[in-house]
Structures are given as structure tokens and as C-alpha cells.
What does this fold into?
Amino acid sequence: MKKQNWLWTLLTMFFIFGVAVFVRHSNVTAASELPAGNEPPLIVQVQNISPENVQEQLALSEQVRALSDKWANTHQKAGWIHVVMHQTFDNDIENTRPDGQPAPNDFITEDWILLDGQGQEVKGIFLQRSISDEIIQVSVLKDKAWFNLTFGNIIPAPDNLIYTLDFGFPEVADRLKNELKKTTENIKGKELIKYSAEEKYTRPFKFLEFNNEVVSIDTQAFYNEDGQVELYQTIVNFQDGSQRKSSMVEVLTFEQVATPPAEILNYLDQGMQK
It folds into this structure.
């Protein structure tokens, strides 16, 4: 199995997954660093689409945007939010932490984030836990930078860091609107609206993350009526007909709170000083 030294922080996931918000989502093409001569092939362009289908696909992408806007209008307001997510990754690379230890592909993240009146992130405490509830690492956002208290990394935070909980799917839906599909699905006893868009390539090719050649990537977002994405995942389809769920993020808890517990707030004063 190939190995890759992953700057394994809650902060860098946001950059790796290629979205302009702090919430992580999977974007396999953005995460890949392809060697020279192995550039990704062009995306297959859908031909001969009827005007009726064009309008239908456009309507679906507008629905996605409307749901995300609905969530933002309700929840992007001043105060603390608390979000707990279960995240999994599956590929053929053995990721390692900065200390050289293996990085698990199945873990829990717990975020406490202070927003201003425009929905921008002001402060934050980000914990990563193992499935057995052991703390793996802690990062904080303060003074316009992220500080990883576990591994000693400091990353400047971008300006106008708006928090959202749609994992960048409205941009995916707009870019791939000709492939956008809508269904409903029952997840753990709850009826959710599933939007999916498959990015197809003109020829099979190999990502560094996978041993098999990839022919398409299907991105799926499961919205509730409030406009929140409760489940976000990517399915990689291979030339041999097999497929793998390369990433999954399940939102376990979302709540707006008056203030975090004292033991959580204490992290803001710990460790590195800028």
C-alpha cells in the first residue's frame, strides 16, 4: 500500500476538499495530486438535451441553492453553534499523521464555532475523536489563524470565512446540472431529499488514491426540509464495474447554543500563542 504524509489537521481538510467554507466535504479531484502525464481526462459533455430537460435540470440546481439559502437564512446568525459529524474515507493510500503514526479513516469531529451577525467565523474549537471517543487532536480558530494544539501547525484563516453546512454542494450541482438527479430516501427513519450528480470522464484514469482506473465520481447530498445536508458522500466508479464510497460525512448533531462548556472554552487559552 502506498503511503502519503497527510498534514492531518481539522484545518487542512477544508483546503483539501476545495470549498470556501470551513465545513469539510469530499472532492476527490481536488484532493488528488496527479503526476505529470497523468492529467485528468475531460468531463463527458451531455449531447442533444431537449429544452424540457434543460429546464428540469436547471430547476433542480435552483432547488439545491434554495435549500442551502433557507438553512443560511435561519442559522447564519450571531452566536455559538455545536456540530458533531462522523467522517469516513476509503482509498488505497495509507495516510500518516505529522508524528508518523497511521491516520484513521473513520473518526468523529466535534466543532464549537462562534459566528458574528453576518455568519462569519470569529472563534472556534475543533476536536477530532476516535470512534472509541479518545481525543486525537484539537485545533482552535482565533486571531484570524488556526492553531493545531496537538501537532503545532499554524494556518492563516481566510477573510470572510462564512460557515455553512451544505459542503459546497450547490456549486457541484450548478457545475454538473446536466447530470443532476433528485429522489427521496429513508435514512435512519427520516425521509431526506437526495440530490446526486455524476461526473463522467472521457477515458478511464488513475488517481493516486486508488489502484483501479476511475471512470466517474458520483457526489450525493441528502437534505432535510430545513435545508441542512445531513449526509454527504462521494462514490467512485471504476473501469472494472466496481465502486467504492470514497468519503462520507454524516451530521450527528447540529445545535445553536448560548456558550460552550468551560472545558471547551479553555482550549482557546491553551498551547501556542500567535
User: Anything to note?
Assistant: Helices lie at 12-16, 28-31, 51-75, 169-175, 262-265. Residues 51-72+166-245 form one domain. The first helix runs from residue 12 to 16. The chain has two domains: 2-31+78-165+255-264, 51-72+166-245.
